[in-house]
Amino acid sequence: MVDKVRVGFVGCGGIARQHLKSLVKNPHAELASFCDINIERARITAEKYGSESSLTFDDAEEMFDSVRLDAAYFCIPPYAHGVEMEAVKRDIPFFVEKPVNLYLDQAERIMRAVEERKLLTSVGYMNRYRRGVQLVREVLREDPPILILGGWIGRPPSPEAPIFKWWIRKEKSGGQFHEQVTHTVDLVRFICGEISEVQAYPARGFNRGMPPTYNIEDASVVNLKLENGAIGNLWASCSSLGGGGGVSLNIYSNRTTALFKGWDHSLRLLRAGEEPEDIPGEPNIFEIEDEAFIEAVREGDPSRVMCQYADGVETLRVTLAANLSMETGKPVKVR
Ligand SMILES: NC(=O)c1ccc[n+]([C@@H]2O[C@H](COP(=O)([O-])OP(=O)(O)OC[C@H]3O[C@@H](n4cnc5c(N)ncnc54)[C@H](O)[C@@H]3O)[C@@H](O)[C@H]2O)c1
């Protein structure tokens, strides 16, 4: 068993910092190297979270060639994937943020290479680690879901945020459903089972004050058919400045209602003939997710990880199918 897992980061932006905040506290992680195409960002991140021996790079291939690593984190935008192959080629286990890609063919190539090499991977669907999520998954095994409603309603990121430039471009982020509501799609798959078909409608042209480069949907609704016969409707809005939206996922079965609310997915569980049960969402969910990955690498035990690469690709299929349906106006089969 490795005592200290030597970690290299590819992408040193917003979400990388969330993982770094938890990894610096983890006695079994050593932050060995930082790579960002914006070298200044890599340097600032290394100064804040690294040690004197940490190295910085602006090219992932060079980092993997120069540093001995036990694990890598890919915290890059949806359009920028493909560099995972640098870790795969060298048999280095990796963590990758959601969504795993913007292009299905590239994701499938990475998936096949990962499977050939039996590489340990983890995808950043951190909500799978929540106690409330796991409880509902268990309960619904006996009492199958029938109707699923949920999504994210909010505003676009602030124009000052570094993500703004790529987030508002459809060909970079994939749009809000692909980039953000992917969390909810993944939870639906995890809790309720596989999605077989989607049908989506976009709304465009309402979000005032956006730069001319803004070309994502202001809102979308996506109908779901599940393999087990359940149905659902998920939504996204980044045009609701008045508030009152937020994150939600409500699942209704014959005898159970699971109401997840907010970013932390706090749960109110209602069961016929029983008292309601409330399970607050874990505020330190990135810490829980990162610890599971580091322990999995140390022990060489993938069972610690709740979403591996191939599973992340299944969620990708659904959000890309929804994007296709937004274009064609037709239902799209996922599997
Ligand atoms: N799990 C979550 O809740 C969560 C939250 C936020 C973001 N994310 C996901 O994380 C990903 C990144 O988001 P972010 O908010 O950190 O974006 P960001 O723009 O803040 O950071 C991305 C960084 O990646 C760098 N980069 C791009 N291509 C690169 C490459 N080829 N090599 C090295 N560096 C490269 C950019 O220069 C930038 O610094 C997105 O897919 C996003 O959906 C997940």
Reconstruct the topology from this structure.
Blueprint: E1 5-10, H1 14-23, E2 29-35, H2 39-49, E3 55-57, H3 60-66, E4 71-74, H4 84-89, E5 94-96, H5 104-116, E6 121-123, H6 131-142, E7 145-153, H7 164-167, H8 170-173, H9 176-179, H10 182-192, E8 195-203, E9 219-226, E10 231-237, E11 246-253, E12 256-261, E13 266-271, E14 277-279, H11 285-299, H12 309-328, E15 332-333
Parallel strand pairs: 1-2, 1-4, 2-3, 4-5, 5-6, 7-10
Antiparallel strand pairs: 7-11, 8-9, 8-15, 9-10, 11-12, 12-13, 13-14
Bound molecules: nicotinamide-adenine-dinucleotide.
Residues 10-16, 35-38, 41, 60, 75-78, 80, 83, 97-98, 124, 126, 162-163, 179 line the site of nicotinamide-adenine-dinucleotide (NAD).
Structure characteristics:
single chain, 335 residues, alpha/beta, Rossmann fold, Dihydrodipicolinate Reductase, domain 2, 9-stranded mixed sheet, 6-stranded parallel sheet, 12 helices, 15 strands, binds nicotinamide-adenine-dinucleotide
Notes on the protein architecture:
- This protein has twelve helices and 15 strands.
- The protein has helices at 14-23, 39-49, 60-66, 84-89, 104-116, 131-142, 164-167, 170-173, 176-179, 182-192, 285-299, 309-328; strands at residues 5-10, 29-35, 55-57, 71-74, 94-96, 121-123, 145-153, 195-203, 219-226, 231-237, 246-253, 256-261, 266-271, 277-279, 332-333.
- The protein folds into two domains: 5-126 and 286-307, Rossmann fold; 127-282 and 316-333, Dihydrodipicolinate Reductase, domain 2 (2-Layer Sandwich).
- The chain is α/β, with parallel strands linked by helices.
- Strands 14-13-12-11-7-10-9-8-15 form a nine-stranded mixed beta sheet. The protein has a six-stranded parallel beta sheet with strand order 3-2-1-4-5-6, sandwiched between helices.
- Helix 1 crosses helix 11 (285-299) and helix 5 runs antiparallel to helix 12.
- The protein is globular, with a radius of gyration of 20 Å.
- Helix 4 links the parallel strand 4 (71-74) and strand 5.
- The structure holds nicotinamide-adenine-dinucleotide.
- Nicotinamide-adenine-dinucleotide is lined by residues 10-16, 35-38, 41, 60, 75-78, 80, 83, 97-98, 124, 126, 162-163, 179.
